[in-house]
Design brief:
12 strands; binds (2R)-2,3-dihydroxypropanoic acid; 14% strand; alpha/beta; globular; seven-stranded parallel β-sheet; Rossmann fold; five-stranded parallel β-sheet; 35% helix; 322 residues
Length: 322
Amino acid sequence: MDNKPVVLVTRRLPAAVEQKLGERFTTLLNPEDRLYSSAELLNLAAQADAILPCHTEKFPAETIAKLPVRVKAIANFSVGVDHVDLQAAADKGIIVTNTPDVLSDATAEIAILLMLGAARRAGEGERLVRSQQWKDWSPDFMVGRQTTGKRLGILGMGRVGQVVAQRARGFDMKIHYHNRRPLDSEQAGDSIYHDSVESLLESVDVLSIHCPAMESTHGLINGKRLALMHADSILVNTSRGGVIDDDALVAALKSGTIGAAGLDVFNGEPDRIHPGYRELDNIFLLPHIGSATDETRKAMGYRAIANLVAIFDGAEPGDRVA
Ligand code: DGY
């Protein structure tokens, strides 16, 4: 038995990532990619010095309290860390890291895809062709909304938000944003800062959400705020479902308070999402694939490994969040 630290990997990662991890650590892998229950997770963690989970594994305070003392780190394969109680981990002395930057391009691509899909009714069109219901072409057939030259509002102008803004400039979109603080002038370029969510919502044709899920952003997009958007506007979410009040969004899409939505993330995903979303035509839905490209998934894995190596070398990991 070697004396490499043991890392519990909760989901199957790209083969190259698992191989690289194995060069430095003893790995407890999940080749069948089964979703572990909390009990199974705790059981397996008994043999581990660190855990490399995805957002699909939850670490609320109760689970963290039960983790064996030998677990020193939770090195996430995700940028979002809302599945981990960071305070509970910090209180227990467990280091938590994430994988920022490397997924910004891939996630921005999906935000743009959602914007275009919602604007141009791509879901409806696809269903029509597949189901052999497409019978005609006419000047008013499947007329959607044009995004070229329109105003794009970015809620949360962090790494992903900034890439989305950059891509949208290619469509001549005018960028508006809300953040806790305005960007410095070089980063902001010609984008327009709004010091409140409300002001942003009133001023844009498309809203793209990029703020992290946390207590202060839970249900941020509620009925009152949706009512500030105009009737032709489009809402896009690639961050986390928790930022949206689903009942309010479904009602806004049904009543015409807003025009359309494109969602990649949901409360209750994958199988308990709001049933109203499935019934609406003016919504374009994807199954949480923001970071799902080969390059990005490998880069996320290597970033998690770099964090683990730093931790077990006694150095500060680059992406520490707790
Ligand atoms: C992330 O990295 O947060 C993605 O949503 C996948 O978990």
